[in-house]
Amino acid sequence: MSLASPATHASRIQASIAADAAARSGVVASWRRCIARYGLDPHAHSSRHVLTESELRRSDEQSGPFLSHVMQPLSHLSTMLAPFCMWVGYADPNGVILAMRAKDGDKAQVAQWGLTRGADWSEAIEGTNGIGTCLVEETPLIINSDEHFFARDMVMTCVVAPIFDHQGRIGGAFNVSLYGPDMERESRRIVASLVASAARQVECDHFHAMFPAHRIISLGTPGRSGNALLAVDSDDVVYAATRAARVMLKLSDARLQAGICANDLLNTAEDGLPSAERSAIRRALIRSGGNVSAAGRTLGLSRATINRRVRYYGLKGSVDSSQDSTG
Hints:
Elements (H helix, E strand, L loop, with lengths): L5 H13 L7 H11 L16 H28 L5 E6 L5 E6 L4 H6 L10 H4 L3 H8 L3 E3 L12 E9 L5 E10 L8 H23 L4 E4 L10 E4 L5 E4 L1 H7 L3 H6 L3 H5 L6 H15 L4 H8 L3 H10 L15
Antiparallel strand pairs: 1-2, 1-5, 3-4, 4-5, 6-7, 7-8
Helix pairs in contact: 1-2, 3-7, 11-12, 12-13
């Protein structure tokens, strides 16, 4: 594929903005942001912005445990995409690359393109690009080679997915930059699916790690991928929710802080003392291997009472019919 000259590319950007194409194209909307909001010039030849060592250490520290949950999915993604000419990286919420994988023979080349640890790929610095634009729009994207704001970035096509933290806020992004003969392959849709899957894995791992003492409820439904999660406390009150769960159930920070019962939210079970009692008896029966008398002793109930309750709630257990008149 022959790439347009920098001057031609810049003219195309300006013409698209002048034609008010932003309403029809997310890419043109990003181009307009770059000029109107950030004051960028598509004709400019600015140098890459790379953090100093101290700035990079600070970014690593701010990412904290989130970064540790990124590494394994990042390595797995790199392995899955090994046949492609590609670079795989994770950028923090500010667009700074904190972790990356590249083919050994291509590391020097991709570094010249700005694909290096500590490089700032925020939209405000690098214009329209996979990482920066994804972080602004908080949605998976494919930025084709000629959709980048600066002509120098037309050497690659970027496939990117946002990653959300345990509070549903943007936690960074996974980006795969395809180059060479793979840049225009139709298989980039498959790449997009793998990138999104890796992002969901980070979200799930991080959410479980942040709430180890809570019960985690998955809201996965047919066609969904299981990253819609709720953390529920011992009183069955929802304590936290992933971004996918918040969108699915229309949950806001204010709603969560006010307190929501999981049963009310999911409409899955009757609430109140009868429901709680049935659940307690069922758990005791399971732990006693179905022995009703043993379950009753665990709960501090007489044999007659536990026998009546087991029959009343339709639970399975070896009921002693000789004792059901008192209690």
